[in-house]
Amino acid sequence: MYKSEKLAQNIRQMIENGVWKVHEKLPSLREQTQLSGYSLMTVLNAYQELEAQGLVYARDKSGYYVAERSTDLVNSKQPIQISLSPKVQINSVVFNYLKSIQAAEIVPFGSAFPNAELLYNAKFMQILAQQAKRKSSYNNQNHMPPGNQDLRQLIANRYQLQGIACHADDIVITSGALEALNLSLQALTQPGDFILLQQTIFYGAWQAAERLGLQVITIPEHPQFGFDLASFEQALKQYPIKVCWLMLNAHNPIGFTVSSEIKQRIAELLYEYQVYLIEDDVYQELNYGSSKPLPVKYFDQHQMVLHCTSFSKTLGMGARVGWVYAGPFSDAIQHLQLMSTLTVSPLLQNTLVEFISHHHYEKHLRQLRYNLEKYKKKFYQELKNRLAPTCKIYYYSSGYFLWIELPNGLDGQVLYEQLIQKGISIAPALLFKPDHASQHYMRLNCSFEWTAEIENAVNLLADTIQQK
Amino acid sequence: MYKSEKLAQNIRQMIENGVWKVHEKLPSLREQTQLSGYSLMTVLNAYQELEAQGLVYARDKSGYYVAERSTDLVNSKQPIQISLSPKVQINSVVFNYLKSIQAAEIVPFGSAFPNAELLYNAKFMQILAQQAKRKSSYNNQNHMPPGNQDLRQLIANRYQLQGIACHADDIVITSGALEALNLSLQALTQPGDFILLQQTIFYGAWQAAERLGLQVITIPEHPQFGFDLASFEQALKQYPIKVCWLMLNAHNPIGFTVSSEIKQRIAELLYEYQVYLIEDDVYQELNYGSSKPLPVKYFDQHQMVLHCTSFSKTLGMGARVGWVYAGPFSDAIQHLQLMSTLTVSPLLQNTLVEFISHHHYEKHLRQLRYNLEKYKKKFYQELKNRLAPTCKIYYYSSGYFLWIELPNGLDGQVLYEQLIQKGISIAPALLFKPDHASQHYMRLNCSFEWTAEIENAVNLLADTIQQK
């Protein structure tokens, strides 16, 4: 567990125990630094996470105060909500959306990709240019599924550093994480099977379910912990679920990272109910803390978890290479790959081998995380200053999205349509929870430097929201 | 029509008219050159095509003779054979096969890819290295489906040069031709639909049918013309076929190129029966003649044809970029793409734009065709010298495969298993006609320079065949 997470948990406990009452001021950042012995940054992160969870609120230049909360939220005794979703036609929604935001002149606050400027790495390009001159980069002999042996070994090493047993043969290299996720789902299901999704989730999961003819069960997010274990277990009991597709680190679009305790329990329940997990962990490297959060895969003693991630979110579309920790499902996934995309560019695979084995990747990640945190904090502060307190901004210490609850029930889709006319894209809730009534949310990409152009766009965004 | 094709047709007509009788010697190459006014190369190509069609046979150093043929073959009055194929489990066959031939020490006569040495292009690499240093090669903004606008325009221009109306918006860039073919089939069919395949065809078609749960109808190859129009029309009449998947240029694995007359009739029948065609034309640029053969797309007045091809067979896996002339189905195919692989490497798309627009591609293709013809002719001659006349070798003037009928009913799969033990791969008939009884065929990749190592492997291959 991270220091800030640990501190946030302690403070939460103290609030629940009545140490500070509602609307009472918490110790200032400086006081808390002295009290806890943690750095100012750790304390700030803890406070911001508590704020995102709705446990405290900030008053400008005055500090953090204990928020008013309904008892059932704090005690997490809310009624379990499980929905059997109707056949959702998500695909056309997403297609039209993606088409509308492609134009170069649109300010891409709706984009799923980090600002390409941040992913640019001169060393990567230099290695790529060198590799481009080698004949071996054009030969598929060593690059057919499951992919380049050296690259798979380097990936396996990274798992081992996290304490996760992994052999190069457990890994299958794919065309980005999206292919890893889709092939995993295809390998594990038949049309008509039940899968479990989070109520709010990356739209790719909804699309895959639609394409493969699967029945979707959703469980709601837990307002405090992100993941609702009670609903999860209830759903596993109630439905013949074959596979779960979950995102538990730097959740897209909301942003939360679920605690290790919950992940461990998820792994136990998977084994108990013999349900497979496709773990979408594409933002694992974008946690601002000193180490990356553990995946459920870490707690998986029985090969129930297929862990999917990629280099696309850290090195960009020029390195559109992903992978799945497939373990015993490696052959099944390669079968599917040989029928669809066949192989991932030998050139990119070779380049990644050089880049990673010479330790350039870690350095790049450090710089990337530093910038993402700086930009996201700036966006968060600027938005706080412009938006009314009824407009709740979820800030978490990872990734490059802010999830924003819109005031007065303003529908994200309505806002999106207004803003796109003004040359600004946002990602409305509809993309992530197409079957759900509460649509007054949006996701904002804030991986941009605070330029005059960005400031103008944020002003326009805030004005449009406030006019409602 | 090519000169050699025209000449072959004339000679065929004269044989059928009784100008030369069975076992009578045809004019020598030199005589025929003088008679016809064509070049020696054209005459040789015509004779070799007639030989491949079984109309003439060669005697070493003595010349070409009229072959004995059963009347029904020459008159193409064979009974129509249409099969409704059972659910074929092709996928495991192909998977195990591809795995077995991957090892670096295996002589890759079974490979589907041309020898990577031939695809190497220094200019391409140089441009790729330059592009690798540009930030725009890492930005997906202009490279999302349907793909880079400039690249699509260059591809459209190439269609226009062939006399095929084409707009950049008709094209969707894909991860190789395999994705183009698969997405096209997925866009046009529902599980349970009927599709029509050639009896002998690239195994990817069988795999796609299996994966999408389609019913397969096959029609046999015509022994003389490659494509059997009568069976085709009969099948369209008899079954509710939704889509055909055909290969008519440099057919894989057999090698024939169907005449323009037949292609025109296919286009008419497609419209008459309202059936779509997915045209696999991956070898369109590998015809040794001066111009590339027309696709059915050329005769398609009603947007019934989706034409699929790629750069992978001409520039190698380093340029794993394909496309489909999707026309009105562009949106449907992009839908599917956004759910699976999302986008094709911006770097490769940019590189191809530079490479093609500076006319390097045509030069590369000329050199590639020159080498492929040289190597394939050498293989053909050397095999003729080593194998008994009962072992029929199909030679056609394109691509890099020889299709070989094995003597004494020797099963291709049996031969494959013996040869793989000796470190040589071949592609047995089972991969291409999994539902058919006659398995005494193999496909041989002959895109290799005639080195001592290759000669040893060919000797071993010939010995193993002759020992049967």
UniProtKB/TrEMBL annotation, chains A, B:
<keyword id="KW-0238">DNA-binding</keyword>
<dbReference type="InterPro" id="IPR004839">
    <property type="entry name" value="Aminotransferase_I/II_large"/>
</dbReference>
<dbReference type="InterPro" id="IPR036388">
    <property type="entry name" value="WH-like_DNA-bd_sf"/>
</dbReference>
<comment type="similarity">
    <text>In the C-terminal section; belongs to the class-I pyridoxal-phosphate-dependent aminotransferase family.</text>
</comment>
<keyword id="KW-0805">Transcription regulation</keyword>
<dbReference type="InterPro" id="IPR015422">
    <property type="entry name" value="PyrdxlP-dep_Trfase_small"/>
</dbReference>
<dbReference type="GO" id="GO:0003677">
    <property type="term" value="F:DNA binding"/>
</dbReference>
<dbReference type="Pfam" id="PF00155">
    <property type="entry name" value="Aminotran_1_2"/>
</dbReference>
<protein>
    <recommendedName>
        <fullName>HTH gntR-type domain-containing protein</fullName>
    </recommendedName>
</protein>
<dbReference type="InterPro" id="IPR051446">
    <property type="entry name" value="HTH_trans_reg/aminotransferase"/>
</dbReference>
<dbReference type="InterPro" id="IPR015424">
    <property type="entry name" value="PyrdxlP-dep_Trfase"/>
</dbReference>
<feature type="domain" description="HTH gntR-type">
    <location>
        <begin position="1"/>
        <end position="69"/>
    </location>
</feature>
<dbReference type="Pfam" id="PF00392">
    <property type="entry name" value="GntR"/>
</dbReference>
<dbReference type="InterPro" id="IPR015421">
    <property type="entry name" value="PyrdxlP-dep_Trfase_major"/>
</dbReference>
<dbReference type="InterPro" id="IPR036390">
    <property type="entry name" value="WH_DNA-bd_sf"/>
</dbReference>
<keyword id="KW-0663">Pyridoxal phosphate</keyword>
<keyword id="KW-0804">Transcription</keyword>
<dbReference type="GO" id="GO:0030170">
    <property type="term" value="F:pyridoxal phosphate binding"/>
</dbReference>
<dbReference type="GO" id="GO:0003700">
    <property type="term" value="F:DNA-binding transcription factor activity"/>
</dbReference>
<dbReference type="InterPro" id="IPR000524">
    <property type="entry name" value="Tscrpt_reg_HTH_GntR"/>
</dbReference>
